[in-house]
Design goal:
9-stranded antiparallel sheet, globular, 9 strands
Length: 128
């Protein structure tokens, strides 16, 4: 009887609903960076948010880059915005701060934005 109770407890524990969500979105248009798909290369062709791990991952057409920890989540009646800030090395050996924000609208639209000092933002839009 103890064995049956242990098995039943294990089955019930494994069957609990998961509240984690992975949201994946695809971009269809980009603005900024006029040469050679610069906006797409920086903002990505797609992105996904893992709400359980609190990470955001930017993707190219062929794969995914390493995930970033989400620094800030802002919600409103119409959308949720996930923000990431990171420091990247530049070609002169220094660092520059890059800020990404990805917004998911309740109606299925998505936008992405990459900003860094001294440059105009690069943006993308698409759907989830």
């Amino acid at each position: 009887m103890k064995k049956l109770s242990a098995i039943l407890a294990l089955v019930l524990a494994l069957s609990k609903p998961s509240y984690a969500e992975i949201i994946e979105c695809q971009f269809t248009s980009w603005e900024g960076g006029t040469k050679g798909g610069i906006a797409e290369s920086w903002v990505g062709a797609r992105f996904r948010v893992d709400t359980e791990k609190n990470v955001l991952q930017i993707g190219s057409k062929t794969g995914w880059y390493a995930p970033y920890d989400i620094k800030k989540v802002r919600t409103s009646k119409e959308f949720t915005t996930y923000s990431v800030t990171t420091s990247l090395k530049n070609d002169k050996g220094g660092n520059h701060v890059v800020r990404y924000s990805y917004r998911i609208y309740n109606d299925g639209r998505a936008t992405g934005r990459m900003r860094q000092d001294r440059f105009l933002p690069l943006t993308a839009s698409g759907t989830c």
